[in-house]
Amino acid sequence: MLSLGPGSACDVCLEPFGTDLKAPCSIPCGHVFCVSCLHNVARPTCPLCRTSFSSWDITKLHIDLESIAAALSVEQMPVPSNTQEHARQLQNRITQVAQSGATELQTTQLTEECKVFLAPLPKTMYTDLRTAYKMLHYMCNVKHLYIEQGRTLNQHLRNITTLTQEVDRLKAGFEALKIEKRRLEEAWQNVSAERDNVASECEKLHEQLDNAEAQMLLVTE
């Protein structure tokens, strides 16, 4: 049976694992999410590493809820005095990213910071920050998907360029063959004409020989 530590939560919705729709499920890449989030992904790819999977690949994990409840009752995480300030800073950074943009690395790091900060806290705390985090997480996924689609499109364009060049090369080769064919046809016509001339000359020579033989016979008689 899988044993989860206190505060173990889904990396997408940040809600603690539990039963029914919040039951943890693993996919082939090894990442674990709740049932609800896996069923609601826009495409069958891991929200973290983008590895593809199918509904047949989802494995529901059984967790020891009693151990988790006991651990939570014994070990209550104290809220740091600067938690409010940390939450405000994260909220401001998310707002700045939304307004001014950021690199993929910066956005990924900020998303990870928000996840680490919010995961051990009750889901009723910092609801605005949680909403902003989910929007940032969704934006990261959309941006990643856009980048992947751009790469795929660029690859298709490169393939089209390569095929176009190959078609042009074949067309040039075809035109060269047509020119060579015409040259050979002209050469054949010239050879045929020359052959006809030679045949005509041979026929004339035969006639002359026949006439010469006839005259010789007359003289000898």
Automatic annotation (TrEMBL):
A Gene Ontology molecular function term of the record: zinc ion binding
InterPro entries tied to this protein: TRIM/RBCC (IPR050143), Znf_RING (IPR001841), Znf_RING/FYVE/PHD (IPR013083), Znf_RING_CS (IPR017907)
PROSITE patterns: ZF_RING_1, ZF_RING_2
Domain of life, source organism: Eukaryota
Keyword Zinc: yes
Keywords tagged on the record: Coiled coil, Metal-binding, Zinc, Zinc-finger
Protein name, per record: RING-type domain-containing protein
DNA damage recorded as keyword: no
Coiled coil: 153-215
Lineage: Eukaryota, Fungi, Dikarya, Basidiomycota, Agaricomycotina
Domain RING-type: 10-50
Native source species: Mycena metata
